[in-house]
Specification:
Length: 652
């Protein structure tokens, strides 16, 4: 099997592992971390796949085959865990962790065998792979890496031994996410599957105890939520047949995740999830402080109306001839609110909440001037502090702002909307929601292409802010953001160039975006920026060139752009950072085409490299040493003909 084909198989294996998303709560962190670490290997595997240079085939193939074997074990383990009972996973945690340890050790050994020094991958990629290795070794050293939830383990043991304490049952049900009909049904089926695959052996007392434990949890949840029947686990038929049919046809997004019924008064909690007001009120009144669906801790004790969803539900009911569910006229404060002096989710709304609700109403107005003024006020509020960013996001501002990006024809409104999203993205937890939950990237790219100059600048800054999260880099690149960023870098104001440059640098760290950037014409723009009299974009241009030159297409285009003289000049007289990046570009070019070695020698680079290898920064020393080593190897190869670099230079 050829190296390229094997690399393709490895890439597909990693993608398959990343697609396994049903991580069971007791092992959720372990599985998610393993999946995330393996995803970090994708850029390196893509580099191996695309590499045209000859590599040490025997050692490389042996290492890649070993990696393929370890990835198969990792995939089997994640699938195995996704099908097990949650109760079993906790009670038999040591047995499961032994398998985790074995898989982690296999992955660490396989990655350690890869001859990285022969790959000539970029510093960023090498550091990324080294990070994965460090994390795997740390996980092995800690016996699995992640901490056990000892409280959950002890609680389950006590229930397993017959305890029926309601507080323990509540903790276990929440931590194992066994609070809904679906959850309980899946857990019951998982236990039955374990029984059916036992090969006919007597499951013994342990299985019976686990089934009894699950029944006790279900009985507790039934007390908490009376809409559960004993067997089978289905919602009670409290509606007429016609109404029941209507409920079955309700779109999933219109159902409350707690009651699974059409929401009458949808409200948003700080995690970004929406629930029916009465259901989430009861959840919080019972002392819970996490989001029922995601189990994320709620950062603030505020819920706000989801006006957009309420309107969509009303439209759906009208178009389907269904009477909209009646909403309580005056929601009562929860007992928690009446007994606490702190602000509560269901206390009478504060002036701040009333102001935000009024602004969100204006965003949905049909009057352009109201939309513009509301978006402008939200822009200022989101700029002020993290508290405002959390409250605005929890209030449902993000989807309304995203809608304005493409639905508003007013340039100023577009500018306010994209800048509001930029300011909201400063709060780390909002970055993921803006893209994954609310799909903001196409709208931001639209403004980047069509907006005013200031709106385009702020759209570029928004993409930079969002691309800090690795998963977002791929999404942004796939949405077509790179060509308009290249245009802004070429023709924008000085601030626009800075914003576009930082966004492009961040996006090009992801291997899949490098080719897109090269094909969008980024290299000629960067070369032009190197020659601007003011030199205000030199740092950014060199840093991006260093990343692009590690890509096969990038090497060709950068080499054809007559880059070697510029790189030698920067190595000779640039800032320490510019020397590093210029040397990084030369390393890639000279490894691809020996003619660049000859040209660099003719321009007098050797003395500069010797000086840099002795007195440069750590990264600069490494790059200079790589180049000097390449010169030495090239001369050795030419000795038989009696013509080294010096001799070839004389022929030019």
């Amino acid at each position: 099997m050829a190296k390229t084909e094997l690399a393709k198989i490895l890439i597909e294996s990693v993608k398959e592992i990343a697609s396994i998303s049903d991580h069971r709560p007791p092992m959720k962190t372990h599985c998610a971390h393993l999946s995330r670490r393996l995803k970090l290997l994708l850029p390196m595997l893509e580099e191996i796949r695309d590499c045209k240079n000859s590599l040490p085939e025997e050692s490389m193939m042996k290492a890649l085959l070993s990696l393929r074997e370890s990835l198969l074990h990792a995939k089997d383990l994640l699938i195995y865990i996704s099908q097990l009972s949650k109760i079993y996973l906790v009670l038999e945690r040591d047995q499961v962790m032994v398998r985790f340890q074995k898989v982690t050790a296999l992955l660490e050994q396989a990655l350690s065998e890869i001859p990285y020094q022969s790959l000539e991958i970029s510093d960023e990629l090498q550091e990324q792979v080294e990070l994965v290795l460090v994390q795997l070794r740390r996980s092995i050293g800690k016996g699995g890496g992640e901490k056990y939830d000892d409280e959950l383990y002890k609680d389950l043991l006590s229930l397993y031994d017959g305890a029926t304490d309601s507080e323990i049952l509540r903790r276990v049900a929440e931590k194992l996410q066994l609070m809904t009909v679906t959850d309980l049904t899946e857990e019951s089926l998982a236990l039955l599957d374990m029984l059916s695959t036992s090969g006919g052996d007597d499951p013994g007392e342990s299985f019976e105890k686990m089934m009894m434990l699950l029944k006790n949890i279900k009985d507790f949840v039934q007390t908490y939520n009376p809409n559960l029947e004993d067997v089978p686990l289905r919602s009670k038929p409290s509606l007429s047949k016609a109404q029941d049919e209507d409920q079955k046809n309700v779109p999933e997004d219109f159902r409350c995740p707690i009651s699974h019924k059409l929401m009458s008064d949808p409200v948003i909690v700080s995690s970004g999830q929406t629930y029916d007001r009465e259901c989430i009120k009861k959840w919080l009144d019972d002392g819970n402080s996490t989001c029922p669906k995601t189990q994320v801790k709620l950062t603030i004790d505020i819920v706000t109306p989801n006006y957009a969803l309420r309107s969509l539900i009303a439209q759906w009911c009208e178009s389907n001839g269904i009477e909209p569910p009646k909403r309580p006229n005056n929601p009562q404060p929860s007992s928690k609110a009446s007994s606490s002096s702190s602000s509560s989710s269901f206390s009478p709304p504060s002036d701040e909440q009333l102001k935000i609700e009024a602004l969100l109403c204006k965003l949905t107005s049909q009057r352009p001037e109201e939309q513009r003024s509301a978006a402008g006020e939200i822009r200022l509020l989101a700029k002020q502090n993290n508290h405002n960013r959390v409250v605005l996001a929890a209030s449902g501002a993000i989807p309304l702002l995203v809608s304005l990006l493409t639905n508003s024809d007013d340039p100023r409104t577009q500018e306010h909307a994209v800048t509001s999203i930029l300011n909201l993205s400063i709060f780390q937890e909002n970055k993921g929601r803006i893209i994954s939950t609310f799909g903001a990237v196409p709208g931001i790219v639209h403004v980047l292409k069509k907006g005013s100059m200031e709106a385009r600048e702020n759209a570029a800054a928004t993409l930079f802010s969002l691309s800090v999260i690795d998963e977002n880099k791929m999404t942004i690149g796939a949405a077509g953001a790179i060509p308009p960023l290249v245009n802004l870098l070429s023709e924008g104001s000085q601030r626009g160039k800075k914003d576009a440059g930082t966004a492009l640098f961040n996006l090009c760290i992801f291997q899949g975006n490098k080719g897109k950037a090269v094909r969008a014409g980024l290299v000629p723009v960067l070369m032009r920026l190197l020659t601007e009299p003011e030199g205000r974009m030199v740092d950014e241009a060199l840093a991006i060139l260093a990343i692009l030159s590690s890509h096969p297409e990038g090497k060709v285009v950068v080499g054809a752009a007559d880059a070697v003289p510029f790189m030698v000049d920067f190595i000779r007289s640039g800032s320490p950072r510019n020397k590093e990046n210029a040397a990084a570009v030369l390393v890639q070019l000279c490894s691809w085409d020996p003619q660049h070695l000859i040209e660099a020698e003719k321009l007098g680079v050797m003395g500069c490299l010797i000086e840099m290898a002795e007195n440069g920064t750590d990264r600069g020393k490494r790059k200079a040493a790589q180049l000097l080593n390449r010169f030495s190897r090239f001369n050795e190869q030419q000795k038989q003909s009696g013509l080294g670099v010096e001799g070839q230079v004389s022929l030019i």
